[in-house]
Amino acid sequence: MKVRSLHFDMKGMIPKAGYMQSLTKDIASWGFNHLLVEFEDKFPYRCCPFARHPAAYTRKQLAALDSPGLRVIPLLQCAGHLDYLLKYPQMRELRKDGKWYQWDMSRPEVFDLWRKMADEILEVFPDCKYFHIGADEVEMTGPGDFETYVRHVERCAEYLRKKGKKVIIWDDMFRKHDLSKLQGLLHKTIVQVWQYREVDEHLVRNLIEAGAEVWGASRIQEDRYYCGMGSQVKMRKNADDWTKVSAKYGLQGHTGTIWGRIQSTTPLCATLPQSMYMIAYLGESLTTGRKPNLTAFHRKLGDWFGIPSKDIAGLAANFHYEPEAAAKFLKEPSRHGDIMEIWRVLNGMDCLSAYINDCFSSNNAMFRLYREGGAPPKTTNNYLDGVRIIGERVEKMKQEIDSVLGKYFPTSLLEEFKSERFDSVLFWNEIQKKELLRAQKKFSADFAPPA
Asked: Can you give the residue range of the structural domain that contains 25?
């Protein structure tokens, strides 16, 4: 396959710039030759400096991601997924129906701002061959909206084509429309079909028959908000399905996506380093054009780390589902210890999550009795022990996140990460502690011997 790309979603918990540069070498070693970079609020735009995140990369740091072996494909959304920008008061007039998600494409100022942002990106990546303009998941709320959308996307695409760039767009907005009426756009762009569960090959075939160049996109990592590692085996099937479809239709481009979060205002999801198992798996698929032999792949990934292949197989099978079992396979590797160190912390979060779920689920049914003082003191004390242990383990986990993940990720994002994972747990933990102590006091008073 000509273009084998990995998605770097910068709205999520991005690695520190220096660490990300080292990760690009790992990514290239698994057969990827392009990096699709979705900048969002991590690009230092001069035209809208208010939208810059504290963890944004500098222009020099962004340029360093591009190399002859791994070329950057910039991604700048042209229609929706613009909450990172439109949430600011300065952008109020450009919002569609007053919402942050997408801008009003009928306003001339919208294209002018998008063009300025695209020009700034091209200053950093002047030699990029491809440029992705997104254009997916746009809400149509009134008559004429789709026509306005198509005109705007065509205008953005044409602007970049005149600069010698091949323009890529997502496919989903065209799935329910007559493709014969969209050939002006489809023939000028590469249409990328994203399918993250079952792959509907009719979407690919219909676009090819309409004369479009088609690429595919799979999902590398589960975008679960409050888990650590996420399931690896679940993602393999999506990659395997795409391998078949790509071979059948001779597709020349594919992207493995890792969504750092759904929107800039929603919780952090997956990180790029934690996804290395599936990065390697998809890279192997795209390079060979075949579904990898699992035994051979685990041996190759084991050699990459310098650990036995059975440990890789054990990790893949148990991550997310049985974190305590997965912990047994987290060995000290002779190579790429950074990845294994990150895996160990995130798997520890899954172990903690499993303990919290077990502690709360086994006691929630009896909570009414606890509150009413109807539970025996021994039972209440056991629950209080669980509440205490949860608090202690959360604090210990926070310290581990700071000391270990702090080497690889920006502080501002780690603070957000910890808050999203633990604030609600500690809040409810404290409420239950107060209720249990109150119930315990009531029980003692009710059953105290007479004076």
From this structure: 3-292
